[in-house]
């Protein structure tokens, strides 16, 4: 009488004999399957009896054992779910928080008395505007060297604030920049005002990339000072796109990609261009075409700005003598 132990022992002896036999298990397996199958299967389709070559042929084109089409469909489904559900829900909690200027005042460097006593009205402020990639920053840097301006880039100040570890609105600023939207003017104006106050010795300021809309322009002139001129760099959108894509290879900026660039173009056309038109009606716009060479564009810019500054100095002297 065989119990479980004896059956296991017999089975072990049989396996040892099979291992010493000249017939391989692969051959025995195939014979068994052929004997009881009405249709002789192909070796590559067998489970235990398939060869290495058969396994390779069977899985050719598969990725981790999954058909490429199924893998692509799975990745697309997961990505779509993230973009349509998870990401909007995550950003909603951060971006749609109500912006409170009083809360932001925690980061203000200067007291209310210092701000009220600062002589903003005696400063010569020039807004530098133009489409993204029109050369605002490049030409502003040269004007600093030639005319003693302090150059304030609204975009650089916002990115600097975004990177500041203690910034309460860093994520908010980052979202607006990535999406090509306009950051609330309360933030931008405070950054510009504070930076101007850090240069009390300077009377000339170039504010690059600001104002982005008429609301910003009015808020700045109501709370800081009236701009004397707008330096407008005019450039076709096709040229701007080429410049920005080329700059994006090395700039490391989050908004130098094709999606952000298109959004920035729309924002510029819908919001920023009306600012230029409004100042043009007041006779305050200096227009420079930026389709030429870099040196050629700056030569025209320098000549125009030099003429404006000379006229501005005469005007200041006249007002001073009238007092």
Keywords summarizing the entry:
323 residues; alpha/beta
Can you walk me through this structure?
By secondary structure, this protein is of the alpha/beta class. The chain is 61% helix and 8% strand. It has 14 helices and five strands. Strands 2-3-1-4-5 form a five-stranded parallel beta sheet, sandwiched between helices. The chain is elongated, with a radius of gyration of 36 Å.
General shape: elongated
Unreliable residue stretches? 22-38, 40-49, 91-99
Helix content: 55-70%
Oligomer: single chain
How many distinct helices? 14
- Average pLDDT, to the nearest integer? 77
Profile the largest sheet: 5 strands, parallel
Q: Name the strands of the widest sheet in spatial order.
A: 2-3-1-4-5
| Helix/strand structural class | alpha/beta
The percentage of residues in β strands lies in 5-15%
Report the radius of gyration as a whole number of Å. Answer: 36 Å
Number of extended strands: 5
The rounded distance between the terminal residues' Cα atoms is 128 Å
Order of helices and strands: HHHHHHEHEHHHEHEHHEH
Short description:
This protein has 323 residues and is an alpha/beta fold.
Layout of helices and strands, plus pairs?
Layout: H1 4-20, H2 25-36, H3 52-58, H4 68-95, H5 101-104, H6 112-117, E1 124-130, H7 136-147, E2 150-153, H8 154-163, H9 170-178, H10 185-197, E3 204-208, H11 214-223, E4 229-234, H12 237-251, H13 258-281, E5 285-289, H14 294-322
């Amino acid at each position: 009488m065989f119990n479980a132990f004896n059956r296991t022992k017999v089975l072990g002896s049989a396996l040892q004999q099979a291992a010493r036999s000249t017939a391989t298990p692969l051959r025995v397996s195939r014979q068994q399957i052929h004997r009881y199958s009405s249709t002789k299967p192909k070796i590559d389709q067998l489970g235990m009896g398939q060869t290495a070559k058969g396994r390779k042929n069977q899985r050719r084109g598969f990725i981790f054992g999954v058909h490429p089409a199924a893998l692509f469909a799975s990745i697309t489904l997961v990505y779509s779910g993230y973009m349509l559900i998870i990401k909007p829900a995550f950003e909603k909690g951060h971006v749609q928080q109500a912006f409170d200027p009083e809360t932001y005042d925690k980061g203000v460097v200067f007291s209310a008395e210092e701000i009220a006593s600062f002589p903003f009205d005696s400063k010569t402020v020039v807004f530098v505007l133009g489409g993204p990639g029109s050369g605002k920053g490049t030409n502003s840097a040269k004007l600093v060297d030639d005319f003693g301006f302090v150059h304030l880039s609204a975009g650089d100040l916002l990115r600097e604030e975004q990177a500041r570890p203690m910034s309460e609105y860093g994520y908010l600023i980052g979202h607006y920049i990535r999406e090509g939207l306009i950051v609330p003017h309360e933030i931008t104006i405070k950054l510009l005002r504070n930076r101007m106050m850090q240069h009390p010795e300077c009377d000339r300021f170039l504010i690059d990339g600001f104002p982005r809309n008429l609301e910003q322009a009015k808020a700045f002139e109501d709370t800081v000072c009236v701009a004397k001129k707008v330096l407008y760099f005019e450039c076709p959108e096709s040229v701007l796109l080429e410049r920005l894509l080329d700059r994006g290879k090395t700039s490391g900026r989050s908004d130098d990609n094709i999606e952000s660039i298109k959004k920035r173009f729309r924002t510029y056309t819908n919001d920023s261009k009306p600012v230029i038109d409004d100042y043009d009606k007041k006779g305050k716009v200096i227009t420079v075409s930026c389709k030429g060479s870099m040196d050629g564009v700056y030569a025209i810019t320098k000549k125009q700005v030099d003429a404006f500054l000379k006229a501005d100095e005469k005007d200041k002297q006249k007002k001073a003598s009238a007092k």
